Amino acid sequence: MVEKSAQEPFEAAGDPKHAARATRSAGRKMRSLLLDAASPLFRERGLSGTAITDIAAAADAFPSQITYYFRTKEALFVECACRDLLYLARATEQAALKARTPREYTHALAETVTASDSIAFFAEALTLTRRRQDLAPLVERTIERLHSEGARAYAGQVARHGWRSLRAPDESSRRFWAVAIGIILEGYAMGRSPEALCAEMLRVLGEQAKSAGDTARLRLVDERDASTNSNEEG
């Protein structure tokens, strides 16, 4: 029995399923390393200014590994931009968790989004997919995930605090990101500061929801108005 137990690790190591899992795990790790190395280079130098050899050197990898995992530099660029946008979305959700009112919630989202260049990076990927339709599905999946996770996060905050949303969660999420992309791209072109972009986003977005206290006050005012009208009619 002891001899059999001693052999089991060697048998497991030779198991094709174990080898396949190890290969997939190593592949995911290498892809992640290449994305981590490429993203800051693309942000700083752009697509044309970044060579595959630069990315490979930054990741301590071989250029052939980039073409193996991503096929082309353009595909790597788009995947970096999509991943960074989803990371930004996660950061906005985390920043807004401490909000106690709808106003604080919207401000936390806008402030986090406008402090990053991830949306401008993603916009470059959108432009690239106009000429490379083979890369469009990744962008489409990213946008759908962006909206679905945004709607989930917003609905959770509304339910947790008892707010009354002025729009459906999905509509609120799509509107927020559409406004963010438009204002940030316009602001980048005009050299506006993150603070100016945030202020403009808040102005355009306006009120997203009402807190429980606001709703109660509105109800009280409505009841008073109804009572006054009833007395006047009497």
TrEMBL record:
<keyword id="KW-0804">Transcription</keyword>
<feature type="DNA-binding region" description="H-T-H motif">
    <location>
        <begin position="51"/>
        <end position="70"/>
    </location>
</feature>
<dbReference type="Pfam" id="PF16914">
    <property type="entry name" value="TetR_C_12"/>
</dbReference>
<dbReference type="InterPro" id="IPR001647">
    <property type="entry name" value="HTH_TetR"/>
</dbReference>
<protein>
    <submittedName>
        <fullName>TetR family transcriptional regulator</fullName>
    </submittedName>
</protein>
<dbReference type="GO" id="GO:0003677">
    <property type="term" value="F:DNA binding"/>
</dbReference>
<feature type="region of interest" description="Disordered">
    <location>
        <begin position="1"/>
        <end position="22"/>
    </location>
</feature>
<dbReference type="InterPro" id="IPR036271">
    <property type="entry name" value="Tet_transcr_reg_TetR-rel_C_sf"/>
</dbReference>
<keyword id="KW-0238">DNA-binding</keyword>
<feature type="domain" description="HTH tetR-type">
    <location>
        <begin position="28"/>
        <end position="88"/>
    </location>
</feature>
<dbReference type="Pfam" id="PF00440">
    <property type="entry name" value="TetR_N"/>
</dbReference>
<keyword id="KW-0805">Transcription regulation</keyword>
<dbReference type="InterPro" id="IPR009057">
    <property type="entry name" value="Homeodomain-like_sf"/>
</dbReference>
<dbReference type="InterPro" id="IPR011075">
    <property type="entry name" value="TetR_C"/>
</dbReference>
